[in-house]
Amino acid sequence: MSKFTVEETNLICIYHSGTREDLISELIQMKTHLEQDEKELWELTQSVVDKLSAMSDNEFNRMTAELVADFD
After folding, report:
1. For 44, which of 8, 23, 53, 66 is 20 to 30 Å away at the CA?
2. What is the DSSP letter of 48?
3. Distance CA 39, CA 1 (A)
4. Mean pLDDT of the chain
């Protein structure tokens, strides 16, 4: 989990939609709705997209397994 900052992790939790590729797609789509004064969020989102793009699906699945609460 150390690859991602707390802010990046929060963004992942908000937009996580199942797969790594779906999450990347969601984040890219979200960036198109940002205003010019939201540069910090744009940069944060791009950082997450870059990191997700560099990791494998297996790494992503292990990482997100730590993020999802197990209520069983």
Report:
1. 66
2. H
3. 25
4. 91
